[in-house]
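dude i think i finally got it to work??
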Amino acid sequence: MLTSRNRERERLQQEIEDLKLIQRKSDGARSVAGESIFERSISRAGQQQQHGRPQSRGSEAMTQVTETEREDWERKEGQLRDQNAELRLRFQELERTHNTHLQYVSALESDFEQMESELNEQSEDLRALQRERDEALQAYEGKEADYEKLEQEAIAEIDGLSMQIESLESQLADARERGRRTKEKLERTGDDYRGLQGELREITQSVMALEDEKQANLRAIQTLEQQLEEAETELQSYEQKCRELDQKGKKLEITQESLHSEITFLREEQEGDKIKIGELEDALNAAQQTVQDEQERVREMEEGMEEERQQRDVLENQSKEEVQKVLDDLNVESGRTKDEVRKLRRALSAKEVESSSWKGKLDELERDLKSLLGEPHGTKQSLLAEIQRLQREAESTANSLDRAKMDLADKDRLLRHRDGLLESTSLESRRLSDLLDKERSSRRHDLEQFERASRGQASQMREIAQHQSRVLELETAYSQDKRKMAALEQQYRDQLSERNNLLLALWNRLSTLCGTEWAQTNSMIDGKVPSHPDVIQRNIPGFNKIIISAVQRIESVIGNFKVRVREVEKVVWKDYQTLHQNLDFRIQRMEGLERAVRDTQRAIQEQEAIVKMQEARDRPTPGRSGSSKSVKASEEVARLKQRNKVLEAELKFHKQHPSALAQQMINNQNAPTTGEHIRRVSSGGGASAASVGKSQGSPAQKLMSSLLRGHSSSAVEQMPPHQRGGSVDEGRDLHPGYGDGARQSSGPIQLQTPTPAQPSEQRWVHRLKELERRLKAEREARLLDRKGARQRLEEGRLENEELKQMLEREKGRRESFGDEEGESFAGSERRASLAAASTQQHRDSDQD
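look at this
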């Protein structure tokens, strides 16, 4: 798009240059043509003048121009006129084309300017797009980095899960292989079971065939059975014990098979299992040997049955004597067999002891197997050693069982050979019972194998279910991880929005700290005001710049803060000095007032003494007493004039410098004034002397009214009614100017001749004492006020020192915590303003 616009702009510029060249050429041609036309018109005018002259002359006289020449001139003139007309037409056409070209050029220039403005706008848009692209690329790189991290984590998690799944699949394949093996084993056992069932049917048929013969033989051997019951019971117990031993041997074989399976499982990890496999092969050969022995025993039993049948045939043919003889022989042989049975019982008891020991060993083996299966801390070497020990014990027990079986087989052979005919009669039933026992044991064995296979299959099914549950758990964990990733992404977005809001709040606080003028001049980020978090997010570099400038502004303000604090300290120190001077001046004034009160007291006492002396006298010389009175009155007038000057100076000072409390009292002049309030006004130095009013009293009363600035309520109550009204008027006539009181106090004091002592003079004495008490109280209050002012100034100084320390701490904290600098500065500025306000308030109160 930009390349096409650049090409179009270049093409337009080329066209404009060509048009300018054409315009210049056309201007030059126009000037040349105009000049030629102008020259021709001039020449034509000259020719006309020349032709006119001869014509005019020819009218007066004969001319020398012939007609042919005139015709030539006219013809040339017509040609020139035609050329002039053609040139004019051409000039008009060229002017029209020139105007069209000028319009076209102006249109092109306007289009060019418009296109330049559009190009500038497009370039600005392009720069904005480039900035947005850079920001988007930065955001994309950040997102891509986060995505790569998340992708790596997810890939690692997926790899771990895939490895777990592969391990589970391998375990599942092993379980399936075990199940297949168990199924094959079950099929083999089923086939063996069916073959045994067929053999059992054949045996049952043979048994049914033999039962008929047995019924015939039973009648013949009932007498023999009664004698042989004890031997049969002993033999049955012995056979039961043999069966139990056989069952234990089978159980040991089962355990041996389980150990063999365990050994095959451990054979993949250990190299020494080959020796165990060889031992197991030896055990298998021994078992095959025992099977062969059992087969030989079966053949021997079959041969015995045939011999018994032959003997039975011989017995049927022989006579009863021979039968009796045979029976006697059999009885002898039965006695011998009883002896041998007793020996066998002893051997069996020994064997039982051995079997009990083997049983204990077997229990110990089972416990070891249980510990092997449930021992979490056992090692492979210990397990292999335990298995080898169990295998050796199993092999020893198997060998002992084989020896016992061999011994039993030998004994059985001896008994068969010794019993003779007794064995021939009971052999069939015993064989049948043996066959039944074998069938039952085989069935039990098959049932145990089936139960073991079913248990193994159930355990495998449980393992498969556990694996499936594990797979489901892994899937749920994967889904939870997905949700966690989504939650983390949402949390990341929330944190970004919170960061932007925090930056916006920081900008608002910093802009308020820096001021509105600075904020208006420095609040633009690429032409936009940071009024929304999205603006800040899109323009982080610009926002960083204005934040840095705001921090610099705050640093400059904080740098100037020391100067401001010093200026405030200077102002406070000046106020303190003025306050101290005012306090000294007021203390001096109070001392002067005390001296004046003492002088008035002395004057009153002197006056009372004079009055008493006058009363004591009988007035013999009135002229002399008048002269003394006039002298004392003149002295008193001079003293009062001096006091009046002091009071006038004091009134002038209070007029020029009225205190805030006096101004407040003047503003509240309509409010009821108490004695204590008037006392405060008098102590502040803001009220002037009260006017005397229209009451006519003694000079002492006028003097006290000029000295006092207020009267107590007790003194007012003791005064006469007209004086009480005067005092009330004095309390009400307070105003900001204090002019009336000054005029009344500054006027001449009318002295009257002393009169005899009255009760009112006694009241004045009491009032003087009360005034002394008040002066003392005022002085103490002044001292307390001075002490409080000093304490407040000390507090202000301590507060300024605390502010300095806080500023130093803020500077140290600003280096480490730049974000909290605005708030700390605002807090310190507020505290500084509060401290300045409190010092100003203390200063005003001290001035009051």
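The mean pLDDT is 69.
im so relieved honestly
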